[in-house]
Amino acid sequence: MLLNLLTGIAAMLVCLLFQAIFVGICVRQYVRFHRRHGLLLGPLQEIALLAVAMLLAMFGNFLQMAAWAWAWVFVLVGEFADFATALYHSAVNFATLGYGDIVMSERWRLLGALEAANGILMFGVSTAMMTAVLTRLIRLARPEPLDGA
Protein backbone atom coordinates (compact mmCIF):
# COMPACT_ATOMS: atom_id res chain seq x y z
CA MET A 1 0.00 0.00 0.00
CA LEU A 2 2.87 2.39 0.71
CA LEU A 3 4.19 1.88 -2.83
CA ASN A 4 0.71 2.72 -4.18
CA LEU A 5 0.58 5.91 -2.14
CA LEU A 6 4.08 7.01 -3.10
CA THR A 7 3.45 6.27 -6.78
CA GLY A 8 0.09 8.04 -6.68
CA ILE A 9 1.47 11.09 -4.87
CA ALA A 10 4.31 11.37 -7.39
CA ALA A 11 1.79 11.21 -10.25
CA MET A 12 -0.39 13.82 -8.54
CA LEU A 13 2.58 16.17 -8.25
CA VAL A 14 3.28 15.78 -11.97
CA CYS A 15 -0.39 16.53 -12.69
CA LEU A 16 -0.28 19.57 -10.43
CA LEU A 17 2.70 20.83 -12.41
CA PHE A 18 0.86 20.29 -15.72
CA GLN A 19 -2.23 22.06 -14.36
CA ALA A 20 -0.19 24.99 -13.09
CA ILE A 21 1.49 25.35 -16.48
CA PHE A 22 -1.80 25.35 -18.40
CA VAL A 23 -3.57 27.69 -15.98
CA GLY A 24 -0.55 29.99 -16.14
CA ILE A 25 -0.66 29.96 -19.95
CA CYS A 26 -4.39 30.76 -19.93
CA VAL A 27 -4.00 33.62 -17.47
CA ARG A 28 -1.01 35.05 -19.33
CA GLN A 29 -2.83 34.87 -22.68
CA TYR A 30 -5.96 36.40 -21.17
CA VAL A 31 -3.99 39.37 -19.77
CA ARG A 32 -2.02 39.77 -23.02
CA PHE A 33 -5.26 39.68 -25.05
CA HIS A 34 -6.83 42.42 -22.91
CA ARG A 35 -3.75 44.61 -23.11
CA ARG A 36 -3.71 44.26 -26.86
CA HIS A 37 -7.44 44.71 -27.53
CA GLY A 38 -8.61 46.87 -24.63
CA LEU A 39 -11.17 46.10 -21.99
CA LEU A 40 -14.32 46.09 -24.13
CA LEU A 41 -14.59 43.00 -26.29
CA GLY A 42 -16.99 42.12 -29.04
CA PRO A 43 -19.12 38.97 -28.83
CA LEU A 44 -16.85 37.01 -31.19
CA GLN A 45 -13.77 37.97 -29.20
CA GLU A 46 -15.46 36.85 -25.97
CA ILE A 47 -16.42 33.52 -27.52
CA ALA A 48 -12.91 33.04 -28.88
CA LEU A 49 -11.36 33.86 -25.51
CA LEU A 50 -13.61 31.38 -23.69
CA ALA A 51 -13.05 28.71 -26.33
CA VAL A 52 -9.26 29.02 -26.14
CA ALA A 53 -9.34 28.89 -22.33
CA MET A 54 -11.60 25.81 -22.42
CA LEU A 55 -9.46 24.03 -25.02
CA LEU A 56 -6.27 24.70 -23.09
CA ALA A 57 -7.87 23.44 -19.87
CA MET A 58 -9.12 20.27 -21.57
CA PHE A 59 -5.75 19.68 -23.23
CA GLY A 60 -4.08 20.04 -19.84
CA ASN A 61 -6.49 17.53 -18.31
CA PHE A 62 -5.98 15.11 -21.21
CA LEU A 63 -2.22 15.39 -20.78
CA GLN A 64 -2.66 14.46 -17.13
CA MET A 65 -4.75 11.41 -18.06
CA ALA A 66 -2.04 10.35 -20.48
CA ALA A 67 0.62 10.82 -17.82
CA TRP A 68 -1.24 8.50 -15.46
CA ALA A 69 -1.84 5.99 -18.25
CA TRP A 70 1.56 5.73 -19.79
CA ALA A 71 4.58 7.75 -18.93
CA TRP A 72 4.06 7.72 -15.25
CA VAL A 73 1.98 4.98 -13.81
CA PHE A 74 -0.21 2.29 -15.34
CA VAL A 75 2.04 0.97 -18.10
CA LEU A 76 5.23 1.44 -16.08
CA VAL A 77 3.97 -0.66 -13.18
CA GLY A 78 2.86 -3.33 -15.66
CA GLU A 79 -0.86 -2.96 -14.97
CA PHE A 80 -1.80 -2.63 -18.65
CA ALA A 81 0.06 -3.98 -21.65
CA ASP A 82 -1.00 -1.33 -24.15
CA PHE A 83 -1.34 2.44 -23.98
CA ALA A 84 -4.87 2.56 -25.45
CA THR A 85 -6.34 0.44 -22.65
CA ALA A 86 -4.34 2.32 -20.03
CA LEU A 87 -5.51 5.67 -21.41
CA TYR A 88 -9.15 4.59 -21.47
CA HIS A 89 -8.92 3.34 -17.90
CA SER A 90 -7.14 6.54 -16.90
CA ALA A 91 -9.81 8.75 -18.47
CA VAL A 92 -12.57 6.82 -16.68
CA ASN A 93 -10.76 7.23 -13.37
CA PHE A 94 -9.69 10.85 -13.90
CA ALA A 95 -13.23 11.91 -14.80
CA THR A 96 -14.56 9.87 -11.83
CA LEU A 97 -16.92 7.87 -14.04
CA GLY A 98 -15.86 4.51 -12.64
CA TYR A 99 -17.40 2.27 -15.33
CA GLY A 100 -15.72 -0.84 -13.91
CA ASP A 101 -15.43 -2.57 -17.30
CA ILE A 102 -11.63 -2.58 -16.90
CA VAL A 103 -10.35 -3.07 -13.38
CA MET A 104 -6.88 -3.00 -11.94
CA SER A 105 -5.29 -5.82 -10.04
CA GLU A 106 -5.65 -5.90 -6.28
CA ARG A 107 -2.00 -4.86 -5.91
CA TRP A 108 -2.46 -1.54 -7.75
CA ARG A 109 -6.17 -0.74 -7.43
CA LEU A 110 -5.57 2.07 -4.92
CA LEU A 111 -4.03 4.02 -7.81
CA GLY A 112 -7.46 4.23 -9.43
CA ALA A 113 -8.92 5.94 -6.38
CA LEU A 114 -5.93 8.27 -6.15
CA GLU A 115 -6.30 9.22 -9.80
CA ALA A 116 -10.02 9.89 -9.30
CA ALA A 117 -9.24 12.19 -6.38
CA ASN A 118 -6.58 13.90 -8.49
CA GLY A 119 -8.94 14.24 -11.46
CA ILE A 120 -11.80 15.78 -9.54
CA LEU A 121 -9.42 18.34 -8.04
CA MET A 122 -7.87 19.18 -11.41
CA PHE A 123 -11.26 19.49 -13.13
CA GLY A 124 -12.22 21.76 -10.24
CA VAL A 125 -9.21 23.97 -10.94
CA SER A 126 -10.15 24.06 -14.65
CA THR A 127 -13.72 24.98 -13.72
CA ALA A 128 -12.52 27.73 -11.39
CA MET A 129 -10.34 29.16 -14.16
CA MET A 130 -13.24 29.15 -16.63
CA THR A 131 -15.51 30.74 -14.01
CA ALA A 132 -12.96 33.50 -13.41
CA VAL A 133 -12.70 34.24 -17.15
CA LEU A 134 -16.48 34.20 -17.55
CA THR A 135 -17.00 36.41 -14.49
CA ARG A 136 -14.50 38.92 -15.84
CA LEU A 137 -16.20 38.95 -19.24
CA ILE A 138 -19.59 39.50 -17.62
CA ARG A 139 -18.24 42.41 -15.59
CA LEU A 140 -16.67 43.95 -18.68
CA ALA A 141 -19.92 43.59 -20.61
CA ARG A 142 -21.88 45.34 -17.87
CA PRO A 143 -19.58 47.79 -16.10
CA GLU A 144 -22.27 49.58 -14.09
CA PRO A 145 -22.88 48.06 -10.64
CA LEU A 146 -26.05 46.10 -10.07
CA ASP A 147 -28.34 47.68 -7.48
CA GLY A 148 -29.80 44.42 -6.24
CA ALA A 149 -32.44 44.23 -8.97
UniProtKB/TrEMBL annotation:
Domain of life: Bacteria
Limits of the Potassium channel domain: 68-135
Pfam families: Ion_trans_2
GO biological process: monoatomic ion transmembrane transport
Keywords linked to the UniProt accession: Ion channel, Ion transport, Membrane, Transmembrane, Transmembrane helix, Transport
Protein name: Voltage-dependent potassium channel
Transmembrane segments: 6-27, 47-74, 116-138
